[in-house]
Structure to design on (385 residues):
């Protein structure tokens, strides 16, 4: 299948790759911000579980809009506009999240959600494209930076909440994003597509079972990951008074394991077949979520979070790299669809966790949804595709 032509990768791709990795640090903070903030926002804004679940829906539906916009910008103008606009929208949302009542908070979540929708597919596809010889390891390293942001998010939110410094923390994140946008504006990015000749049509793609398998993974995996990271704090807060004090820190255990796993994954993936890593990862993820739901003590939940994080570590980077390898530059266009699903999953599944919890009176029942999603992902990868 012929691919659309683009100009050669810029000679400054080393600096560009470094800047792209650094940009994924605050991206990790904002993607996971609702997890540690959720118990605090529920109190501040007097939200029940269903209303709290709506915050995830707002963030990730806004992210879908950002992903669609990124697809248009990547095709017509290349990577630069999507990158800079995404960073600035994230900065605006972070700066205003804790500045007022629930309506302003929702608008802020929507703003940084659109920004995340621009940055996440753009950065993943950029790294896969300019590091094509080692795409899986490069994307894994990129998402390692994302994981550092996710881990520090939980720790910093807990510290800022204890010291009454949440507005300062969010302002610092906003300032970092503005500084990154300022310095990245002059870097040389790969050019926009110069031809659509030979690109696969959607009718052709829809007839391929592989595209539907990719779609399932891009929907289910981010939804399961966000559900675990987003609801684990609230889950622990209901185990008892002592456990409730640990609630804002709980997402950090999951994100630490995910981040460590991604650092190890850059080495592991050069020695172990991707298919085996995928099967082992989703199997371990399902076992970890099961352990969290079975345990009635804090230590069991922590152990389950660590196992789940390690299991999930390389699943997303491998999937992004496989998409880029299979479709080449056409992945810029296909990516708009796939990364939209990667935003829909985190919108729908955590939202359904909240609804299920509210209807059944049990957050444990709600968290059965990401467990089911992970089991399905394991079954999908039992065959080669």
């Amino acid at each position: 299948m012929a691919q659309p032509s683009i100009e050669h990768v810029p000679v400054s791709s080393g600096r560009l790759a470094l800047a792209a990795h650094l940009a994924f640090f605050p991206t990790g903070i904002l993607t996971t911000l609702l997890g540690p903030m959720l118990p605090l926002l529920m109190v501040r804004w007097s939200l029940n579980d269903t209303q709290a679940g709506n915050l995830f829906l707002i963030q990730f539906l806004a992210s879908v809009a950002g992903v669609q916009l990124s697809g248009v910008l990547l095709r017509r103008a290349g990577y630069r506009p999507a990158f800079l606009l995404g960073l600035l929208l994230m900065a605006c949302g972070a700066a205003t999240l804790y500045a007022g009542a629930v309506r302003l908070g929702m608008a802020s979540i929507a703003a940084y959600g659109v920004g995340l929708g621009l940055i996440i597919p753009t950065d993943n596809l950029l790294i896969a494209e300019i590091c094509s010889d080692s795409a899986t390891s490069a994307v894994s390293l990129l998402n390692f930076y994302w994981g550092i942001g996710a881990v520090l998010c939980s720790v910093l939110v807990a510290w800022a909440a204890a010291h009454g410094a949440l507005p300062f923390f969010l302002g610092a994140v906003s300032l970092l994003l503005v500084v990154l946008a300022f310095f990245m504006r002059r870097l040389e990015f790969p050019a926009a597509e110069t031809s659509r000749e030979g690109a696969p049509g959607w009718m052709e793609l829809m007839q391929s079972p592989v595209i539907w398998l990719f779609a399932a993974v891009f929907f289910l995996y981010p939804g399961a990951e966000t559900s675990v990271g987003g609801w684990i704090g609230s889950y622990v807060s209901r185990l008892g008074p002592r456990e409730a004090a640990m609630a804002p820190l709980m997402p950090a255990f999951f994100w630490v394991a995910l981040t460590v796993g991604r650092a190890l994954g850059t080495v592991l993936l050069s020695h172990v077949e991707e298919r085996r890593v995928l099967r082992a990862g989703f199997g371990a993820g399902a076992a970890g979520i099961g352990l969290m739901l079975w345990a009635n003590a804090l230590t069991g939940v922590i152990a389950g979070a660590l196992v789940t994080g390690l299991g999930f570590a390389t699943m997303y980077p491998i999937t992004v790299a496989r998409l880029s390898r299979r479709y080449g530059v056409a992945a810029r266009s296909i990516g708009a669809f796939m990364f939209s699903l990667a935003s829909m999953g985190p919108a729908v599944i955590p939202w359904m966790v909240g609804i299920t919890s509210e209807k059944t009176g049990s957050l444990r029942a709600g968290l059965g949804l990401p467990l089911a999603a992970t089991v399905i992902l394991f079954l999908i990868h039992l065959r080669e595709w």
About this structure: Residues 90 and 286 are 32 Å apart (CA to CA). The mean pLDDT is 87. DSSP finds 17 helices and no strands in the chain. The first helix runs from residue 13 to 31.
